[in-house]
């Protein structure tokens, strides 16, 4: 048990505070012989990096990932891969207000309640900065999954404004072109206006992220407490500010009839595995992948750090007010998109190895 | 790692198939000296038991729980508590159709894909029957939590019909009186009509369950991958047919502004801990309990077993059709209510012990 | 984490007290499709069963193992296998002395110190009776290992009397013929005389068990904290009354020179894997199997329950004396032989699956 | 599960290769509020450091530990503590021989067999260099244990030459003064002569280390698979070159009678806890601490790297010979002394927290 680790056979441990010397992670269980270098990590890290549009925080951090172990001559060795990201943009500033008062919606109060003290500089361990290490781990997970499994995410709602383009009309290339990871250019433009208004008002908004995996073969996941959807939900819920997670039809399934919700099965082409007429299940039945696209969504709450004063209390329990100044994302959901991908990749990598461990590569096992 | 266990210091392992000789669980890590007997387990089991109204399956199983170990002279000893529930109502019937064909929405296909074989009798391990062992474990968890922490759940939506009574007007006594665990008698009556129509149509509907815990002190949960909300979501998502989970405002938070979503803090009465003006957070900030009521909701999909024929394939890949006969709950969400309570109780018991392990009873620690 | 579980991918959880209704285990992670039935478990259980010679306790327990789950039509399904062994020979007797006084060398005092109470009937959870469940789990582990891996153990020392027959002259068939699991008939006869004297004197003696596995391929085990020898030592040390464990040359290695201790390598026959000139390493280098026979030994202390009075204290701290009456093994090391086999089989089964999970069946992995 | 982690509530994950950029560890679960700084780590690291006498390798590495996270203003925060030790003395040298041939007694062959490739520079991950990170973790564990628990180790055998001074005549101050961690000056001098001869001969010898903990209260450890002795044995066996571990009387207990092995109990002074007349048990009964001194010993094999040529094979399976040149400890057991202390400290810290988690500070628990 470790409060700062997740996964079993592909196991990630992260460490570090927002304003300490460095953050990082140790990834244990990576199979040997996989091609891996720092550039692969950097590609994903750059997508999460702040300061890339006017819609995210203007903090500038190169987020340069350094591999300290576990890779030799460009290949993984099977030993733990440690990744270090130095903290470079730690502005020396006055933290006395945040040290003395609890910011509503932040972890300030609960860390103090639990531990009796906290590293208040920039939110310490509870800062979203830690998600950079998840993205690094996710890049390693992609190497484990190989090219056959594609994990990608998109933003599908900003504040109350939902993407209305149907799933089959999404343009995944567009996701890489606009600052919202939005699969539709027109919607992205609309969200740009919305965000400008939010920023001007000193306010913030929430968002919904959809993350998918194509190419997952049937059989990953394990009943009853190693379910693929269970682990996926836990992984997404562990991301800062996430308040809800759903698989496939999700909450909407509650309102469907059994007939409408059924994903009927048909013989697959060329004698291959069966196909499904629909995917309300989100690619998972009984906790095990069906071979369809795995689909999850997560709801991200509006950024708690806003310019409007909020009532709060001091560490000593006195009534007070607080305005969170500084450089904050008015919609943390945007930069959560590559983080959601990373978490899904990590969960899938873990289950790939777990399935192989228990069932061999193809499921089942010849009797001894 | 165990695919059939959950929790860390309070750890539950379940076993058993729907039509095998018995199902059961082993609960490890229960503190010693707690009063516990079979009657305490039976009270919760009886709430989940089938056949108690016309709205649930007419299968009759006494679900009598027998404690095999870990309790001596009415008190827990600190050793593992094994609970056994014999399967008594295993009708000898013809399983040849379910053996040969995949029921859409069930785990039949994925179990076969993963394991190469499956115990098809009554769904085997994937049957909701397993949740009886969770309820037994939950009763033990309640003993760990003690009377100060109250865990209870209610149904808040059946099909598309939501409970409209505001939370503060709920009648928890009513929850025990109607067959829907509904905190409002009028709504329960309406749902009764709705369910009659569903049953008559040979159809099924989904539901949404809300589960809450009062009396959780601040400080339970642990960043970053032992978050209370993360573990809670995983536990709820592991329940059969659950497709979505949310904490506090959940998905609705995405559409709120930062101002509206903020739970402001005020000095507590009599110099006690601070109070919050609202509870969008659902009692959890940064993965750690705030001292407010912990609030989660889960979406349950409509029962997959319906009387309307659905297209499917046989094990050999041939096109076919299937009608799931037999005694099934037309809304599995109803009997999921006590299961949701049990899972929340287990997660909280685990975190109570984990918090005490790392931080002592009160958080913090005197320096050595 | 579970105090009553061991293993990772092949994970065993045991429960039960000596004089409760039953003891048992849940084995999680068994690959699907393996042939398994109760007879396979019974074969190993019968070797551990008490009352089979005058040298072991005369308690009579059929130790009939019942499989409750995880096996369908004679094959494992991949779901947890629960095994139940009812306690039948619980003589109703007077436990007041053992309840009130601490037996030296027993866990009575430490259980009370830890838990504040204990199930004192027959030693409760600390009774060697629990090892029956390990033997059942070991039989399942053998199914996982298949016929290519042979795990077997022998007694090599009783009290101060060591087996002097060199390893290459052992007769494994003889192990099954004498009551000491001794690979030499003459030595067994000598030990019979020694044990008669010990029993007559109301005394007890210790023993040393050697356990071996042939057919383990190179590559099982994992640096640095999943080492095969580490897990093996932990598993053997968890057996009641074991006070020391060693691998290969063990403690004797400390006195060897580097030259003498070196297991030199030579090209294998027919271009096969290399062979070693010796096996001081006990088949493990760097925590990973070499392909040689895995060799471990464990020291078992003399039975603490003896007929000679020993000084002790009561629960209330008063000076007292105690004589442990009842039916006890004068040398618990004898019946520990099949238990040692079971523990080694479980550890190897776990590492077989773990190796396959991380490295595939053959080690290494094609780059993606 | 993680191959490179140990412990549960106090959990250590290590990473790094001998000749990579750095080695390090992440310690998760440290209680908050403990005084800790880099100097505390350095004190223990300096005791393990090479090049401090002519009897250890002349490699020079400052082994400067840098704390990257988890400590704020001189106190632990409860978040993971990452420690980084840069590798500075990586001589650029020719590794072609070690890359192409397997050194007998080393992990070269097994790493290749398992992973298909290995970082051969200086032994990579299998180098004893990794033990520096264990010592750093051990220093953090000491902070968790506080001043009431004293963990210390001594060398009690070098090659075939045992320390003959009885335990009660040991001089712990002398341990810090001679290069052998020997509690007797005369023996240390004798070992100095022995080691000079060994070094001159280009040979190596093994050793035995005794490690003890005073001040452990009764009640730490947990039956049946979280036994204190089991975890201790696993932790010591995980140290490079260790081939045997024993607790208390250990292997010698096998030759004792039940009467002689019994640690009788007497009323404690001033109504305090009972005292024992002896400590054959090594401070542990039934896997739980008794309150006596916890005593363990481990056997370290002779260094495999010797100047005498040994026969081996190449990666391609051809017959060859190898002489391990370079700077090696002729007795790795010497520098293993502080490592043994560190491992025992880590295990005890873990069990302190685990005991508190399950049983509260004092064992037992008031009924709810």
From TrEMBL, chains A, B, C, D:
Similarity comment text for this entry: Belongs to the chorismate synthase family.
Pathway(s) where this gene product acts: Metabolic intermediate biosynthesis; chorismate biosynthesis; chorismate from D-erythrose 4-phosphate and phosphoenolpyruvate: step 7/7
Enzyme kind, highest EC tier: lyase
Species name: Roseospira navarrensis
Enzyme Commission number: 4.2.3.5
Protein name as catalogued: Chorismate synthase
Catalysed reaction, written as an equation: 5-O-(1-carboxyvinyl)-3-phosphoshikimate = chorismate + phosphate
Cellular component aspect of the GO annotation: cytosol
Binding site residues for FMN: 125-127, 240-241, 286, 301-305, 327
PROSITE patterns (UniProt xref): CHORISMATE_SYNTHASE_1, CHORISMATE_SYNTHASE_2, CHORISMATE_SYNTHASE_3
Cofactor(s) annotated in UniProt: FMNH2
Stated role: This reaction introduces a second double bond into the aromatic ring system.
